Amino acid sequence: MLKRKRDDNKDVSFFLRIPIEDEEESKEEEMTLPQTDGLSSDQIEGLHKVAQGKRVFITGSAGTGKSFLIDKIVEMLDTNDKKYIITALTGVAASEIMGSTLNSASRVNDETNVTKSIFWLLKDPEVMKRYEADVWIVDEISMANITLLKKIHQVAKALRKNEKPFGGIQLIAVGDFLQLPPISQDTSRPLFAFEYPEWAYLIEE
């Protein structure tokens, strides 16, 4: 379980989106939930969505309980023997959550040639282990531009031989689009990932 300072368990907002390609939503929980004492109704809803295998976006300003909820999610993943990796967009944030950067974990960046990358990543057993994980937790998602997310999506589909978004990896995106802007070489204001139509396809809930 993550060892970090927890925020107060205040309400967390959830943006709910379901791609039209998905089958009818299952009402059954895929995972056993942890104790929900101290969680708000919104946080419990988010925990249920994760237990159902949904790709979710967890947002809220500082101090709204995002870290507290992620701790509960990690506890649930451990209890249910799920394989997962924890990432963030910057090295500082990654070290705080005892994870790695998204670029390092995925071996993908904005300049990646997807076709060449797939060829070489198939030969790297350590990277393949990460792509075989059931769940990826990505903190600071607001700093991820849509190009990066789309390339990871394409690479994951090929490596996992699965046409679902991110090759079937359950993505748990965490962050606040009102705080940190996307990393971009563009001198003009870069668009946040959610401002692109692809966001509604890549993130379900």
Tell me the layout of helices and strands.
Layout: E1 13-14, H1 41-51, E2 56-59, H2 66-79, E3 84-88, H3 91-96, E4 100-101, H4 102-106, H5 114-121, H6 125-131, E5 135-139, H7 146-160, E6 170-174, H8 198-202
Helix pairs in contact: 1-2, 5-7
What does this structure look like?
- There is one protein chain.
- The protein is α/β, with parallel strands linked by helices and about 200 residues long.
- It is about 35% helix and about 10% strand.
- The protein has eight helices and six strands; from the N terminus they run E-H-E-H-E-H-E-H-H-H-E-H-E-H.
- Strands 1-2-6-5-3-4 form a six-stranded mixed beta sheet.
- Strand 5 (about 135-140), helix 7 and strand 6 form a beta-alpha-beta unit.
- Helix 1 runs parallel beside helix 2 and helix 5 (about 115-120) packs across helix 7 (about 145-160).
- The longest helix is centred in the last third of the chain and has 15 residues, at about 145-160.
Compute the CA-based radius of gyration. Answer: 16 Å
Sheet with most strands: 6 strands, mixed
Number of strands: 6
Secondary structure class reads alpha/beta
Oligomer: single chain
Shape: globular
Strands of the widest sheet, in order across it, are 1-2-6-5-3-4
Beta-strand residue percentage: 5-15%
Q: Please trace the helix and strand order, writing H or E for each element.
A: EHEHEHEHHHEHEH
Please report the distance between the alpha carbons of the first and last residues.
24 Å
Specify the helix fraction band. Answer: 25-40%
**How many helical elements?**
8
Mean pLDDT: 82
Poorly predicted ranges:
1-26
